[in-house]
Amino acid sequence: MSAGKIRIGDDLEVEVVDPNSIQPVYADLVTELRVNDGVLYISLANVIVDGESHALSRKAQVCARLRIAGRTAEFIKSVLSQPEPEQAPTGQKLN
């Protein structure tokens, strides 16, 4: 299933394909955060609390591992450092 297109620079447009309609991953913790050869390594986990046992069992289950190229990491950082818009830009919707 096509999820739209992304323009990269002035000359390249790529189609975004999400064949399995991948569900969002909700993360509570960062379990890995390092840079190696210009690639950002991030592993995320969600916390699992077993309230049935006498001693509450807590585990962090890894739910996503990301390897992000340096330029992409810089782009994400620049987007995160901007103030949040109150409304979505024209033709887009907020998630």
| Shape summary | extended
**How far apart, in Å, are the first and last alpha carbons?**
18 Å
Number of domains: 1
- What is the overall number of helices? 1
DSSP strand content:
over 45%
Radius of gyration: 18 Å
Helix percentage: 10-25%
Low-confidence stretches: none
The number of E-state strands comes to: 5
Multimerization status:
single chain
Structural class: mainly beta
Q: N-to-C SSE series?
A: EEEEEH
What's the overall average pLDDT, rounded? 84
* Physical arrangement of strands within the biggest beta sheet: 3-4-5
Largest sheet: 3 strands, antiparallel
Structure report:
- Helices cover 12% and strands 48% of the residues.
- It has 95 residues and is mostly beta strands.
- It has one domain (13-80).
- It has a three-stranded antiparallel β-sheet.
- A hairpin with a 6-residue loop joins strand 4 and strand 5 (57-69).
- The protein is extended.
- The two termini are 18 Å apart.
- The mean pLDDT is 84.
